[in-house]
Amino acid sequence: MADFDGALDCAEKALADWQDSPVALRVKAAVCGLQGQLEEGQSCVQRLVAVNPHTTIETIKAHFAPQARRNPKTYEAFFRGLRLSGLPESAAVRPVRFTRLRSV
User: Fold this and answer.
1) Four-residue CA torsion sign, 37, 15, 65, 63
2) pTM recorded for the entire structure
3) Residue 72 sits in which domain range?
4) How far apart are the C-alpha atoms of 34 and 55, rounded to whole Å?
């Protein structure tokens, strides 16, 4: 059984020392999502994306692939919590807009 309260306590202590810690924000967002504290989880996701705009489920999975293979159930719960807190699956592809320059 997961120790969500312990993980949340550690994340909050880390955030007290470093308020924009990406690691602590990811953990807190995931735990809040799993515990149904969706507003708090969404707030963490917003802060996380403000610190690192390219953070998505896809980028985190790529980074943690070796660890996830050793403990897949834990990482699937982690990703499920991040999804519940609103972290996007992948980066949205934005259409490129070209501006035509005119000579003056």
Assistant:
1) positive
2) 0.82
3) 4-84
4) 19
